[in-house]
Amino acid sequence: MIRHMMVTFASLAVIISSCQRPVEEFQIDTDVQHKTLKLFKDSSFVEEIKEIEDSYQYSGEWTGDLTEGSTFRTIATRKVHQILTLTPVHEYRIVNGHAVEIVKEKEQ
């Protein structure tokens, strides 16, 4: 009975999460990574990263504005299923409909 309830709950969770569509999705490519960044209406995000020999996913919250010329920020709280204690923050600007990461120079 408990196993049946767990399978039912897991199936229901997949159905509910698959219904949520991103309000915006960006493809960001560098020399070593291909990122798919999905931003959702509830301020959550998922960032799927593919490298030459590895793939993984970050998730967390985003804030900001998605209009042309505006900026938004992502704060990752999970990497796959692992909770992060040092939360990576990335900032992006919308340029010609694309998300361009703003790289800040490290202080000397």
Helix/strand order, N-terminal first: HEEEEEEEE
> Percentage of helical residues?
10-25%
| Radius of gyration, in angstroms, nearest whole number | 16 Å
Structural class: alpha+beta
Please state the average pLDDT score.
85
Q: State the major sheet.
A: 8 strands, antiparallel
Shape: globular
Given as residue ranges, the uncertain stretches (5+ residues, pLDDT < 50) are: 10-16
Strand content: over 45%
> How many distinct helices?
1
Number of domains: 1
Topology:
Blueprint (H helix, E strand, L loop, with lengths): L1 H18 L4 E6 L3 E7 L4 E8 L3 E10 L6 E9 L2 E2 L5 E7 L2 E5 L6
Antiparallel strand pairs: 1-2, 2-3, 3-4, 4-5, 5-6, 5-7, 7-8
Describe the overall structure.
By secondary structure, the chain is an alpha+beta fold. It has one domain (23-102). It contains 1 helix and 8 strands. The protein has one helix at residues 2-19; strands spanning 24-29, 33-39, 44-51, 55-64, 71-79, 82-83, 89-95, 98-102. Strands 1, 2, 3, 4, 5, 6, 7 and 8 form an 8-stranded antiparallel beta sheet that branches. The protein is globular and about 55 Å long.
